[in-house]
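During the first year of the project, the team set up a workflow for recording each protein of interest as an amino acid sequence followed immediately by a discrete structure-token representation. This format lets reviewers and collaborators read both layers of information side by side without switching files. As required by the reporting guidelines, we include two representative entries from the current panel. The first entry is reproduced here exactly as it appears in our internal archive.
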Amino acid sequence: MLQIPYEFYPKEITYQHQIKANISVDGLPYNGSAELFMNGATRYVIGSIIQNGVVHFQYLPDSFGTKSFCFLIYKDGRPYMSDLITVDNVIIYEIAISTSGGGGAPTGDPATISGKVERVLDNQAEPAARQLVAIEHKPDGSWAVTGNTTSDAENGSYTLEVLTDGGDTFVLAVDEYGVPFTATASVVQGEIIHPTVPNGHVYRVEAGGTLPATEPTWWIDTGTNHTRTIEGGITLRAIPFYRPLSHGPIKAEPLS
């Protein structure tokens, strides 16, 4: 089971570093979610929805100045990883990712990774469907996305088919972030939407309809305040959006 880690930083740490980048995918400016991961521990740092390829993460701790990082992005439902970069308050990185090779394209022999994903909802553990991404730390020190799948909603189980060069693999569980609120858009039961300004929650449509012309006043899940009906008769359920969780290092099991 993947569990949510909690981290506490000493008060004396200051936050003055930043990373700026222009990300292109297959030669075009990237639009979508971009997540920053720390090299070595495969630790999720921060994520954002970006437009026209422009990403700017500010107020990073001073301790990050000696670390290296990579971006994880998605295209057509598949994950891709950038080359490593470092924190720099001057340089604007030009990051080009190819979905047909390069940018951490997987290599190696066929293998599998199996496991189970659970989430805690209303203080109860239950199986969960999550997008899973396998990232391998190759023997030569490079990183690559080696496979992805979605865990089963009924029992939380999954089997990842990956390519491995015998390195250490980390499996990331990513919450569904859905689509941003769009005025007067039609939504149906089961869809996930999120505020245009992130608040740590996403909202699952319990009763569909047409979204209002103006964004509602969003609420958070307090344990008793789950659902509300907004303008247009649409009922939404607030669900905490957890940062991606990492499980590993583990070794992929080669296929015989």
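The second entry, processed by the same pipeline in the following quarter, appears below.
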Amino acid sequence: MDAVKPYLHNTRNFLATDVARQLAVSASLVFALLIGARGTGLLGGIAIKEAAAGAFAPDFTLLAPASGAFSIWSVIYLGLAGYTIFQWLPSQRRTLRQRAAGWLVAASLVLNASWILSAQASNVGLSLIVMILLLAVLLAAVYVLTRYPARSLVEALLADAPVGLYTGWILVAAGANAASWFMLRGTDLFGWGADVWAVISLGVVSFAGAVVAMTGRGRMSAVAALCWGLGWIAVSRLLGDPGSVPVVIAAGFGFFFVLVCGASRRFRVGHEERRAFRRGYVPEI
């Protein structure tokens, strides 16, 4: 009986830690939803596009997406709500995947809410720091989900898809946030001009998005979010003010580059799996 006590003690500790993680994800989602509603101008908050003297408005920089782009947040929040419910299932409580990814998702939600609060406080510099931290946390979550692949289609839809969508959009948002900060400071490195730096930034965002898109089986949810953001940047610069033909071309190129990278990864993995099944084994991709 004495030999069993340490085992029972460890089991209770793991259970407590797992429940704490599940509660943290749930509480973080509620917090993010409340602050998100405040960020739209509800609950007495200032709408993000009106905060910081319009630094986050669609017409402030060349990398700002048109207003319609931000409707993606409803899909992201819906997906994260599905993930939150999914991670409460008994089958998910003790999996290595959830233990590694759950805390990261919770941290991303807190950082997302913190970004909104810093933006409403008109602190663009702080908002950029928070955005960079948020992106780093989401990239870590993508790494974890890639390291521990989903075991079913349901798990892929309720865990991988929301995180991928979230990450793809934040890549676009990080570029826009950085552009707002540089614009407020009046920075023009080497005197190259806003158009050149916007094109370079879109190249960096597109390349980073392609890397994310080529993880796992091909992270098409990240592709969808990134292409959505790039598409709305192109629309904003084509039809809105300020206009920029180079940015429209760069955003369009980035759109197709990320799409091709994600689709080619998905095709290659599927092709390798079909070959493996014919040979009688499944390779590790």
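For the second entry, the following points were noted during internal review. The two ends are 45 Å apart (CA to CA). Residues 58 and 183 are 13 Å apart (CA to CA). Both points are flagged for discussion at the upcoming steering committee meeting.
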